Amino acid sequence: MAQSAGGEPPVISRIDFTGATNPSGRSLTLVLCESSPFGRSMPSTSIRKFDYDPNNRVLSVWFVASGKHYEFSDVPPENFTAFKSAFAKGRYFNEHIRNHFRYRLVEPASLKD
Fold it and tell me: Which pTM does this prediction carry?
């Protein structure tokens, strides 16, 4: 599967909903990406992609609005399976993952001079 230079799946389409905002006031953008063996991409207004490491039980989530990447520790496989299967990924994330598991912000790799 083709990957962009940054390792992200290529964007098929980006739709900006001019003037539309979510409840927190952020503008809405729908990003459709190709599936990637390095993470699952899906049409979502909040979650850009996610991946799960079953050996370490770490769920990685990348967000659309902020572009930030978080890792959630000690996530059981059944929680990941339910998240992966959920129709509304953002809703499932907010109700079953956020504030339920320890997490850390993954800092982007710094560029060396």
Answer: 0.61
3 state SS of 92: helix
Q: How far is CA 82 from CA 40, 91, 106, in A?
A: 14, 12, 24
d(CA 68, CA 59): 14
| Adjacent-strand bridge partners of 52 | 59
Q: How far is CA 28 from CA 20, 22, 42, 52, 62, in A?
A: 6, 7, 15, 26, 16
pLDDT grade, residue 44 (50/70/90)? confident
Could you tell me the two tokens for 102? 């320890």
